[in-house]
């Protein structure tokens, strides 16, 4: 199920929106929503062809930035290259992120751990640091960080992914503390199970494993997450959503696990 056209937005339409991970399932859903509202878009992603295809499909002025968020120098150069007419960013959606692997921690691939921390945390913080001073100077702006229920409810095989999302939530709340009085808003959006290519990436292309995650149930969709992001972003400027935890009705935090000894 998806929503088209989007629900009635609030009164605040962000003028310029920068979306990282723009060509992914979430990112492109966000891009379509904000384009429908008339926002101008800066689309950041790794693949120039995919960025161009997305930009060409939208009816609003767009600027594309092709770089890997894990390459700090490339990120700094990309942000510095934003043309003047796109420079006053109203909304930054820190969306680039991923999960890799679901083996127990003691069997995990340490390269996977490094990539998750570099992408989900380090890049998100640096991107924020690059965009924030302009927002504070203008006395307005909004940073929406894509966290996850995984940041609050750990699960077997979640280890660094869960921890990386706890970072995103706590970083968002900490930003609120520093930005008090500046007019800049911060929101941590924390979705649970959403059917996207998330699991295909996590299981490194194993389509069968990925499909099992969403089989015989009704997960959220990228459009549902876009609904939440649009809601938080279009509220009037005096209204800050700190955390927005969403999950499908079929999912719930369902208790702690207990190991029981085998009877002799
Ligand atoms: C995605 C939600 O539960 O697969 O962030 O980790 S979960």
TrEMBL record:
<dbReference type="InterPro" id="IPR020904">
    <property type="entry name" value="Sc_DH/Rdtase_CS"/>
</dbReference>
<keyword id="KW-0560">Oxidoreductase</keyword>
<protein>
    <submittedName>
        <fullName>3-hydroxy acid dehydrogenase/malonic semialdehyde reductase</fullName>
        <ecNumber>1.1.1.-</ecNumber>
        <ecNumber>1.1.1.381</ecNumber>
    </submittedName>
</protein>
<dbReference type="GO" id="GO:0016616">
    <property type="term" value="F:oxidoreductase activity, acting on the CH-OH group of donors, NAD or NADP as acceptor"/>
</dbReference>
<dbReference type="InterPro" id="IPR002347">
    <property type="entry name" value="SDR_fam"/>
</dbReference>
<dbReference type="InterPro" id="IPR057326">
    <property type="entry name" value="KR_dom"/>
</dbReference>
<dbReference type="Pfam" id="PF00106">
    <property type="entry name" value="adh_short"/>
</dbReference>
<feature type="domain" description="Ketoreductase">
    <location>
        <begin position="15"/>
        <end position="196"/>
    </location>
</feature>
<dbReference type="InterPro" id="IPR036291">
    <property type="entry name" value="NAD(P)-bd_dom_sf"/>
</dbReference>
<comment type="similarity">
    <text>Belongs to the short-chain dehydrogenases/reductases (SDR) family.</text>
</comment>
